[in-house]
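// run 5 | inverse folding | seed 20
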């Protein structure tokens, strides 16, 4: 079967990463979680005093980009690659609500996006890749054979994110998570550089009322149809 590039874009907490991991495992494709890359840069900014609740030193972060090394290292026990920042596994640290509160602001910085997009495009040169994020089908891989745009109601997404954080033992309220979802939606869709938009040739999937299994079967069928016609 011919290998293709699968681009999955959409709003936060729509399950993009879960779907992408399922597809990559089923197809034997590489999987790249671009959101993890932006989260890792955000964690670096937090650790180095570049960003707080009322302060963002963009220039210092920009000047530090040369010193940020991002890698995905495969974890055979988990069945997927984890995010490493300067050779340190930060997979757990980047999934906190604190990082979520800042990641969209960091992702607005054009120099950050340019650095990460360049890395992402290099990863996908040989095809056979599933990549999820905010601008994969519009900027990173505008020629991807299959583009998916995922959405769900803000309330549904906030509940999913809240349940996930609670399961990890994080002390957060639903109201805090819901506010974060709304704020990220606004920033992601209104930034000047590569805003979150649905590519003209993307297939939109509203998974508000779909189970993971139903969603996976739906997209896998789209993959099969695409590989037959590509």
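// decoded
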């Amino acid at each position: 079967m011919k290998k293709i590039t699968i681009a999955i874009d959409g709003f936060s907490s729509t399950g993009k990463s879960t779907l992408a991991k399922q597809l990559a495992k089923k197809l034997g494709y590489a999987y790249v979680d671009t959101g993890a890359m932006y989260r890792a840069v955000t964690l670096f900014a937090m650790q180095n005093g570049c960003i707080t609740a009322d302060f963002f030193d963009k220039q210092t972060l920009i000047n530090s980009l040369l010193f940020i090394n991002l890698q995905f290292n495969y974890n055979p026990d988990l069945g997927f690659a984890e995010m490493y920042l300067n050779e340190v596994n930060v997979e757990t640290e980047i999934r906190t609500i604190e990082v979520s509160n800042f990641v969209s602001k960091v992702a607005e910085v054009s120099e950050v996006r340019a650095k990460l997009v360049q890395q992402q495009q290099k990863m996908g040169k040989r095809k056979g890749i599933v990549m999820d994020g905010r601008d994969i089908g519009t900027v990173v891989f505008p020629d991807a054979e299959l583009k998916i745009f995922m959405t769900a109601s803000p309330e549904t997404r906030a509940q999913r994110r809240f349940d996930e954080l609670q399961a990890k033992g994080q002390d957060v309220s639903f109201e805090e998570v819901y506010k974060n979802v709304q704020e990220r939606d606004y920033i992601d869709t209104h930034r000047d550089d590569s805003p979150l938009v649905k590519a003209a040739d993307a297939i939109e999937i509203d998974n508000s009322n779909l189970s993971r299994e139903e969603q996976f079967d739906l997209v896998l069928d789209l993959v099969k149809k695409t590989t037959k016609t590509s």
